[in-house]
Amino acid sequence: MAKSETFQDLSLQPPGEGQELGRWLYTELRAAILDGRLKRGARMPSSRSLARQYALSRGTVTAAFDSLQSEGYIGTQVGSGSYVSLDLPEELLISRQDDAPCATPPSRAALSSRGRAVVQGLRLLPPSYSLGRAFRSYEPAIDLFPVTLWSGVAGRVLRNAPRSLYGQGDARGYLPLRKAIAEYVGAARGVRCDAGQVIVTSGAQQALDLVARMLIDPGDPIWMEDPGYPGAVLAFRAAGAQVIPVPVDQEGLNIAEARMHNPQAKLVYVTPANQFPLGITMSAVRRRELLDWAARENAWMIEDEYDAEYRYSGRPLAALQSMDESGCVIYIGTFTKMLFNSLRLGFLVVPERIADDFVAARTLLDRHPPTLDQAILAEFILEGHFGHHVRRMRQMYAHRIAALSEIARQRLTGILDVVHAASGMRTIAWIKTGESDGKVAERARARGLELAALSEFTICHAHPDALVLGFAGCTAAELHRGVDVLASVFETIPEPG
User: Fold this and answer.
1) Structural domains in the chain plus CATH codes
2) 384-412 pLDDT tens trace
3) The pLDDT value given to residue 108
4) Between β-strands 329-334 and 300-304, what pairing exists: parallel, antiparallel or unpaired?
5) What pLDDT, in 10s, does the model give residues 117-163?
6) Dist. CA 105–CA 125, nearest whole Å
7) Looking at the DSSP assignment, which residues form a beta bridge with residue 430?
8) CA–CA gap between residue 221 and residue 224 (Å, rounded)
9) Which residues pair with 85 in a beta bridge?
């Protein structure tokens, strides 16, 4: 062994103000080992002498030594003391390139046809470096989310969670959460199910991907609302489906039009509570007609209720699933719009006869949803905080759409007809100037507004030009600023080229 080093030569930096002494000593000794001040094989000083030299307790020094030993920086010999390890942990974690890379031509390996279909037309949403920007339509009021309450529930769950919650999770989802979901959608939306039919997913988009994998064969015709949710269109096309665009009228998806062009669809996707993006509620007559058609044709129906809880006037109709007697409806919900975007938890409610098959397929995606996040959400729901937050946001969003409507009336009359939405987190603004919605949206985005043109959600059926404006995540001041910027966009129409 090498001769013991003297600690006077190690130049340990003094601890910072308020720094925990055990952590300080561990960090300084580790640095001395890594930069060679304490050489490999060198004998460490005794804990007694080190404690005396730096006015530390023996327990503090022993704890630092234990940490260094547990990580492989030092070892002990009975009756001889502690020594710096000959092989340091860093060398076991960093790979070494012994040979120079071969001089080979660039690879021409390409995506599969399905891979190209997955990414074709896909637009990535940007990270939320800022919140509450006008007129972001996919963001709830994160400024009003009870962060302190959520962190309190999270801290309590993490402190008390059994070690089993850190192991392999249930592919169906955490059972207390599934029970809470079944109870909630039963009371709020009339959905008839038990916990065995609930499958927790990483958001609604994963639920759509799972549906596409399990129910669609290449070439299968499916009915899709037009305009409609692009995420569903892309998921179905990636699975090889033949997407049949179906126009939407004031009662919802136009079933007569769909049957005229393709009566034997394998599946139909609808957003009946709050049609995306037009905001129409499907009528009771149309719902019954759609269910009868699906039962008669042995077709599947996907009911996506992404923000059905937010209704500002009138009594909402119960979910389509509540009327389903044949077992053809698959219900999709999400907590992203109800709570906050980074909570990537959604769910499926599937007929009992296919539940086990969906669970088996779900394991191929990411094994199981994050158990600890589910446990936190379950407590948040069971303690009544979720219901309270949704009721509070319903009131706040009603105020925000009223504010947007009034500001738009004052500044945009004759330019935009902003619909006073009866539900949801976004609204439609019909363009009255004759301009293309795509060109208006492009100029608005260049000025920092986050909005979309209605044509971006349209597959083939023409609609009057309109903008899609989100309001839920915006304060009244931000809505006012957004309307002012939007007014200036129309005031500076470019000259024809």
Assistant:
1) 7-88 (1.10.10.10), 118-129+146-387 (3.40.640.10), 388-491 (3.90.1150.10)
2) 999 999 999 999 999 999 999 999 999 99
3) 85
4) parallel
5) 777 777 777 777 778 888 998 889 999 999 999 999 999 999 999 99
6) 35
7) 417, 466
8) 10
9) none
CA distance 259 to 462: 19
What is the sign, positive or negative, of the torsion defined by CA atoms of 318, 321, 324, 329? positive
Tokens of residue 199, six digits: 């499958």
pTM equals 0.84
**What does DSSP assign to residue 343?**
-
Alpha carbons 379 and 389: distance in angstroms, whole number? 14
Q: To 10 degrees, what angle do helices 476-491 and 437-446 make?
A: 120
Residue 294: count of CB within 10 angstroms of its CB: 21
Cα distance between residue 493 and residue 496, in whole Å: 9
Note the pLDDT tens digit of each residue in 80-101. 788 999 888 877 666 566 666 6
pLDDT for 440 equals 95
Complete DSSP assignment for 387-401: HHHHHHHHHHHHHHH
Distance (Å, whole) CA 248 – CA 243: 15
Dig out the tokens for 475 from the structure. 């304060």
Tell me how many helices (H) and strands (E) the chain has: 16, 14
Rounded to an integer, what distance in angstroms lies between the CA atom of residue 271 and that of residue 285? 15
The label of the residue with tokens 């399990």 reads: 214
Residue type, 477: A
Alpha-carbon dihedral of residues 384, 387, 391, 393, nearest 10 degrees? 100
Single-letter code of the amino acid located at 13: Q
Pairing verdict, β 242-249 and 452-453? unpaired
3-state helix, strand, coil in the chain (%, to 5): 45, 15, 45
